[in-house]
Amino acid sequence: MNPSVYLETTIVSYLAANPSHDLVAAAHQRITHDWWENRRSAFRLYVSQLVIEEAEAGDADAAGRRMSYLTGIPVLELREEVLTLAGKLIEQGPIPAKAVADAIHIATAATHGMDYLLTWNLRHIANAEIRGQIERTCRRQGIEPPVLCTPEELLGD
Hints:
By secondary structure, the protein is an alpha/beta fold. The protein has a single domain, classed as 5'-nuclease (Rossmann fold), CATH 3.40.50.
């Protein structure tokens, strides 16, 4: 069975965005498109209701493009266990209170047993300085955390 991947909202945002003039953002967009075109079929993709809500927000045309990428991807339930773990991620410090959505993304992926959480959020999710704290917090709750990574890390050989 293919590994499971929780797609955090930044992934569809990069896929649907107009080409950026910022070199780093443009590179992230290209890598994301490469992963989507060449590697996504090697994984079982999932999102949450939070991803859908975030993708639907803002400019209607951009939201429509984001939502088109989400068509047919199963939606994971935001159950009580998700909210409990998100609260622990905030209370125990790896995720600041202002980033509750990021805590919910991590908690959703973890409580649903995802192998990977794919994101371009390098501040509060795929961040080497806090990754260990996130993993410890999940494990203290008896939940195995997903690998928090960017599309670049899942490009394969």
